[in-house]
């Protein structure tokens, strides 16, 4: 092992010398050292691994000068966060991503390997900067401003790299894509999944990148936009752009707030369902989640051709004991042609940081779906997982309490209601 490390170091020094005396060439791509290949059916996560730099002032910041505070490095990236959350919910997974051959890349890979996770699908790129996001927060944990440099994901997480993992994707219970991928890579991954009947979860990432769903909408089973991402996605598929969202006045009454949001978002939600998306999980922050679906079939549970994956058994058992044969929500039956919208409320939390809450929501949903829970139960688990995230300073909590997630999910399910059924 020491000999291998020394040889690798010497090769990098030689390459550095070569770059100074020879004309520039294309960056060298190489895979991380492979562990023994073991292909177990696992959800596949494709997207960004990012080094997050978090800055939180200890006093009111003043423009044009520095203030005391805390600055720290955190493993981040939408896809990476979701993958870590899934892993900590006791579901195995396979990650396809890219990092640079630099300090930030080493930091991310060291953390990944320390958790016992495979780096087989993670591409290292010489002469390219690992994706970095620098965030500045206020004293309440709210983001003031952030600057993202994630070009490596779009430039090097290419269709050719993704095609190398066709077998992983085609045998997966679910494929998750984040919108940092280039349109070409998104389409390539979707087509591989579609040919094998693998459901696809699209994570919009941001307002700007959410529109990348337009060419692949017909392949998408699940997607989890917030209000403004939802409208952007609908407008990317419509001409002229006719959908809008007006931020509501502050409602003291939660019911009125939810009713207002439904009225505002219903046109965009129903339009996206018409475009072929099977399940819309519209995240509403402290107002919970809308679950929208049309013509539901057995997709209420992830279709699998293999033995059920391991998921936190106490969560599944507790929820199934609460709702053994009938839910408080009338779920669509197979062959239903109706459109349904359910509302699941958020669980009250002692907020420490909101960074990572959305990623933990998606991670909780995917882990629960792969564990055999239905769509609405899985969203309840996602909401409970997001609550654990906002009560932690880290993007992903060091450890999840299965019992607490089960209790919070149960509380959410007991308060869920049908908003629309026609």
UniProtKB/TrEMBL annotation:
Keyword Metal-binding assigned: yes
Record-level GO cellular component terms: peroxisome
Name of one Pfam family that matches: PfkB
Protein name in the entry: Carbohydrate kinase PfkB domain-containing protein
Cross-referenced InterPro entries: PfkB_dom, Ribo/fructo_kinase, Ribokinase-like
UniProt KW keywords: Kinase, Metal-binding, Transferase
Domain Carbohydrate kinase PfkB: 63-294, 339-393
GO biological process: pyrimidine ribonucleoside metabolic process
Example GO molecular function: hydrolase activity, acting on glycosyl bonds
